[in-house]
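Q: Structure for this?
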Amino acid sequence: MDLLEIKNLKMHFPIKKGLFSKTRGFVKAVDGVSFNLKKGETLGLVGESGCGKTTVARSLLRLIEPTGGSVNFEGTNILELSKRELRQVRAHIQVIFQDPYSSLNPRLSVGQIIAEPLKNFENRRTEQLKERVAYLMEKVGLNPHQTGRYPHQYSGGQRQRIGIARALALNPKIIVCDEAVSALDVSIQAQVINLLMALQQELGLSYIFIAHDLSVVEHISDRVAVMYLGKIVEMASDYDMYHTPRHPYTQALLSAVPVLDPEVTKKRILLKGDVPSPLDPPSGCAFHTRCPKKKDICSKEQPVFKELGNGHWVACHLC
Amino acid sequence: MNSEQLLSIQDLKVRFKSFEGVVSAVDGVDLNIAPGETVGLVGESGCGKSVTALSILRLLPKRSTLMEGNIHFSGMNMLTADEEALLKIRGNSISMIFQEPMTSLNPVMTIGDQIAEVFVLHQNLTWNQGREKAVEMLERVQIPSPNARSRDYPHRLSGGMRQRAMIAMALSCQPTLLLADEPTTALDVTIQAQIMDLMLRLKEKLNTAILIITHDLGLIAETVSRVIVMYAGQIVEEAPVGDLFKEPLHPYTRGLMGSVPKLGQKFKGGPSQLDEIKGVVPSLLNLPAGCRFNPRCPLAIAKCREQTPGMVRIGRQRQVRCWLVGGAK
Amino acid sequence: MIDDKAAIASTRKGNSREFSHLRTGISKFLRNKAACFGGVLIFIFIISSLLAPVLFSKDPNAQDIRHALEPPSLKQPLGTDELGRSILARIIFGGRISLAISLSSVALALLIGVPFGLVSGYFGGKIDFIIQRFTDVMLSFPPFLLALALVSVLGVGLKNTIISVGIAGLPHTIRITRGCVLSIREQVYVEAARAVGTRDRIILFRHILPNVMVPIIVNATLFFGMAIIFAAGLGFLGVGVQPPNPEWGTMLGSGRSLLFAAPHVATFPGIAIFLAVLGFNLLGDGLRDALDPRLGYE
């Protein structure tokens, strides 16, 4: 049994229109996503805007309530837990948010922000709390003597470290990194990525790393899942994803990433058009409107997400 | 003051009056662009690259900005020109596209009208003529159904479409210089590829010089011929793109390149740890003495902490601002 | 990203207790001349109200018919009214009443309105629906008429004036609080608090309330001015604070018929109302500008 098993997760947002807010249709932001997470591994979840990856994060944490599927943490489906039981599980699955500016309450000091999870679960005396906060700050590279400072006194990268310290406070088993480095400068991004990887080694953490930057995801992940319009279209080990991508979308994504070598002229697969709106997804395979290898069946039937062998999964009629 | 240069910036200093004091955002920048050349201006937040670009067109807030130095465009001194003269140039011989297509387009005007406006203002066409031209431009930037799209409002278009519309607007009057401030940062990577492809093809046709301002090294590697690297308000390195990537000289440039994860590098024996630059960008109110990069530089020597290095020429087309490169130790 | 501001902010080598929010706010306020003027007015208002018994041995209600309706003179700087009472004394003591009314009614509106607004905004759903419909009904009355209606039910006098004015300000307070809560509720740090297991009621007090305090305080300051006007209005109509109490509105009411014969009787209370309300409005505006949280800074 893996640490986290997600089966057929769905998040359909109802579109309410009219005088009595009748439900006219659904935005299928997440439409049947399944994946597992093993202890100590990093699963990268990558995709472009509108693919639903951030919604997956919020759904599996139950920050928004998913409309279908199951999320099994160590065997228990957390979607079926009561509010009180859910709180207890929260301690094991934490999250780091994207925006270092709005993810910290501007009126609380750093010490208070990091202590909050501790106060929620542990009845420690103030002295022990202070020690733990100082320890956490040091772990993420912040000066432990500055617990009285406020978020606006820190730079973006430092604020993200505060967010990491907060996520570590309860010794979680899983941390969901929701675009945790996307808003940071390149050199700071490197610092934070290195920090996350070091912490993983040291503390045996498992990460779900969500991002739109394929290079970053591939660097940090052991396995990668590519999402398009609410579904996972391909999932494989980082090695296989890079060397033998099977889905045309994955291939296009890989080719679109700029190479840091001016002498290499990359053969670019240029996709036509834009990502379709999740309000009105195409029939059959959602990617067929832009797929350079599209066949007739692609616009008629939705491909099944199946395993090709060796942990490599694809949803494509051509595979 | 090279007469062959399209754009010549000399010793540009831009300071802002802020609540906390006077902040020096750009501190002595020299930059030249030849006609038809594509130059990249690279740096992280706060390095002054956007401010430099905005200075060229004098788009910075008048009351709180102090500018010194020289900016010459096709013989005209941009810093002393009056508002009339500037208005004739903006959108005409020098155009600019911005990072956020949503906020850079007027939400209450149709795309067609916004592009038409450029023609009406600079080429004295009527609105109807302008609108026809607008549809032509939309077609050139490969927006499908340009006629229908031209009557749409910005919010109806996707990010990629809006950026194309902005490019259409910018290239309407066939500018000799295009300033592109983070043109693809807000876009998805597949759209980014489309947009850059488009820009380069249009540039070929129109022989426009382009100054691309970005923090994205990958973008730079693929699109420009010359790169200028900025840090904390100063230029630290300048080189042809091939030379820069093959052998970056300034420690900051090297650190920057090492920080970027490269697709597939971990399978080719690349390091599992990224090459990070320790510390943070210094506050512009509290710059370190000597070389501005010295607190974070792994190679800093005593001289770096005491004296600010000047730009030193290396070879034909390279310059570096570092005591450890070319200059006396 | 507003990069330079972050770079500037990281200079702040502060140590623990330095809270630069407040300092920036205070200095911003002090540079706003109108706000300072308002502050001075209110300061005078408060001090004179508090020190009234000390400054004036004269009883504001002491009548002296022989000296009725005297225009301003050295002895009576603001003149006397129809019963010979010193208008200056009455205005200063009237200030105490106005101050008491505004403080109490605002306190009432806040004590009831803020919790309702918090609950309504944060929990949404049925509770929100019920509270909002209730508020809608109250808002369908122009506030002053609402106060008037309440007074007709409760009766006249100081206590009832306070209650009526307080309740008249209730729907507005609930709406403003709810609005703030709705926007704060969507902030990522609130979501983060839930993610670390913080209970709802603690989220309300630790995360939501402190961040809605600023708009509420600003609103309260402006409401002080409104409260004075309402109370004066009720007094003017004769259904607020009753004579012989020197409430400004009541003074206005009794001076109305003398407007041409002895204009000073009504004019000075009118000026007092004007200055007090002006002061509160300027102060409120200044506070709002000074405490405006700046994006990219927070």
